[in-house]
Amino acid sequence: MDVLPEILARHSIRRFSPEPVDKGALDRVLEAARLAPSAKNRQEWRFIVVEKEELREKLKQAAFGQECVGQAPVIVAACTTNIDYRMPNGQLSYPIDISFAVCHMMLQAVREGLGSVVLTTYDEQAVQELLTVPYSMRVVMLVPLGHPAEAPETTTRKSIRRVVSYDHW
Predict the structure, then answer these.
(1) pLDDT in tens, 142-156
(2) I need a labelling partner for 138 at 20 to 30 A (CA). Which of 1, 46, 109, 161 fits?
(3) Is the pLDDT of residue 19 over 90?
C-alpha cells in the first residue's frame, strides 16, 4: 500500500463545484476519520456532516463570510467530546486527536477525487449554536468537502534537510 500519491495530491481547496458528493465516497471519508489514532484510543470525537444549503450559508456567516463554506456541498464540523483530557506529557489530547482524524479524512477525500480544506477561523459559539453542539464540547475544525472547481496551485515545501534532524536538534 502506497499513500504517498494521496499525500502528494492533497492541496487545500477553497473553490468547489456544486456537484454533490457521492454518499459512498462521503461514508468512506468519514470512516477514515473514525479509524484514526487517538490518545489511549479514547476516540473522543464527533463529526457533524452539514449538507443542507441553508445551514451551510449560516455556517458561512459564522466563518466570517468565507466563500468555501457556502460553496462546498458538504461541511464536516470536527468536534471533541472531551475538552479536559491531558496526556501524560501535559498536553491536551483533543487538538492532536482531531488533527489525526481530519488528516485521515482529507487523504481519503483525495482518494475519492474530492478536495477539502481545514478551517479554524470562525465564531465557535455561533457554530455550536447552529449545530446544537453542547456547551461543554468544542468545535475544533470545519472541513469543507467537495469536488474542486479548479486545479489547485502547487505549493513548495521545505526540503527534508530543513525539517528533519537525527539524534539532536
Answers:
(1) 999 999 998 888 889
(2) 109
(3) yes
